[in-house]
Amino acid sequence: MNAQTPMHSADAATAEEALIAQDALDDLMTSDKATEVAMQNTLLTPRFYTTDFDELDAIDVSPVRSEWDKLIAQMKSDPNKGHFKKNDNWDTVDWEGMEPKLKAEFIDFLISSCTAEFSGCVLYKEMKRRGSNEDITTLFQLMARDEARHAGFINDALREAGIRVNLGFLTQKKKYTYFRPKFIYYATYLSEKIGYARYITIYRHLEENPEMQFHPIFKWFREWCNDEFSHGEAFALLMKTDPKLTESFSNKLWIKFFLTAVYSTMWVRDHQRPLFHKALGVNINWYGQEVFRKTSEISKQVFPITLDINHPRWRPNLDRLETASRQIATAKARGGVMGMFSRIVGMTKAAVAFVSILTIPANKHDVPANPRMEPAY
Ligand SMILES: [Fe+2]
Ligand SMILES: [Fe+2]
User: Fold this and answer.
1) Which residues contact 158 (CB under 8 A, 6 or more apart)?
2) Residue 143 Cα, ligand 2 centroid: separation in angstroms?
3) Nearby residues for ligand 1 (ion, Cβ within 5 Å)
4) What does each C-alpha distance from 223 to 29, 70, 126, 207, 256 come to in angstroms?
5) 334 CA to middle of ligand 2, Å?
6) Please, how many CA atoms are within 13 Å of residue 349, restricted to the half-sphere of its CB?
């Protein structure tokens, strides 16, 4: 590294370095539109979280020490250092020639992925900053490093389309949602594992159908999802330090709630991008169920229940939820008294569908004493 070739976020050793490297690339460029999209806070868009950092810092990882040390050593060895940047494999992208509606959906996908990656980075970085427990701060620093690289790489892709997400601005201005630590474990564990399942499913699909690869970023998904897998492993170990978190009656209900919320949000959100999935040659319904199947299989490592995704009430109510969310969006755009009325009706329909999914009896199973897994898909 020297003055002529500044560091890229992919080579950064910490989240802070990665963000500075990304900011340096954006000196001459801003894109209010992308930041505006990333700033949105709805039930479906990625959020920023804050939590009780002292409680998190007080975790004692002794009960999982040997697995913990192995995982941390693996993350410290940093197999993906330098991976998240463009190289010869990065084909030229014909943004101008891309069908405008597909382009819009794809950009929306990139912005929302970038925000989600960055949301992880902000939370993990803050935990690292506030904590004094070396086990915890080490883990969170390593995870923040990875997420900063991921967000930086997506921003590289967006920059080619003349768009960037202003990460510094988002950190300061986006609203933060407070979650108790245990909710952070459930939600973050699931989002890491579902992220792994999503990326690997697309990657494997494109391996079999290379002609559908309409953008080079998908070629990076395998190493990418392995990072997310490790992050999920860390949260599985954190939950293992306190059996109550996954075994008490009320916490099982919470786990069910988070599984339902995460799965149904993904379903609705993905269905908002039909052209994107068509361009990839992916049937969205198949993709959704496949991601749920993989995530459920993995989550058995720590959760004593999985959702019954083959139950007769499952798919019809996901579809109802999706239709209702469309109605809500249309009504919101319409405004006025009729818009308001239609919105209330839509929200009621969504609530009924959600409860109908939530009350499907869960599948129960035994959880292994040692949760550790390796990526197998
Ligand atoms: Fe990530
Ligand atoms: Fe992650």
Assistant:
1) 31, 34, 107, 110, 111, 114, 164, 165
2) 7
3) 117, 147, 150
4) 29, 19, 25, 14, 30
5) 37
6) 19
Which amino acid type is present at position 70?
A: K
Nearest by Cα to 364 from 290, 296, 263, 266: 296
Comparing CA positions, the residue from 130, 363, 136 lying closest to residue 237 is 136
C-alpha of residue 61 to centroid of ligand 1, in Å = 23
Point out the ligand nearest to the CA of residue 139.
Answer: 2
From the CA of 144, how far away is ligand 2's center (Å)?
Answer: 8
**Beta-bridge partners for 306:** 363
* 123 alpha carbon, closest ligand: 2
Structure tokens at 149: 């690289």
Ligand 2 centroid–CA 344 distance in Å is 35
Task: Kindly give the pairing relationship between strand 305-306 and strand 363-364.
Answer: antiparallel
Q: Two tokens at 367?
A: 């959880």
Ligand nearest to the CA of 231: 2
What gap in Å lies between CA 309 and CA 361, rounded to an integer? Answer: 10
- Per-residue tens of pLDDT for the chain, all 377 residues: 444 567 888 999 999 888 888 877 765 455 666 676 666 665 556 788 999 999 999 999 999 999 999 999 999 999 999 999 999 999 988 899 999 999 999 999 999 899 899 999 999 999 999 999 999 999 999 999 999 999 999 999 998 988 878 887 788 888 888 999 999 999 999 999 999 999 999 999 999 999 999 999 999 999 999 999 999 999 999 999 999 999 999 999 999 999 999 999 999 999 999 999 999 999 999 999 999 999 999 999 999 999 999 999 999 999 999 999 999 999 999 999 999 999 999 999 999 999 999 999 999 999 998 899 989 88
Amino acid of residue 81: K
Place of tokens 């499952």: 314
**CA 34 to centroid of ligand 2, rounded, Å:** 22
- Centre of ligand 1 to C-alpha 228, Å, is 6
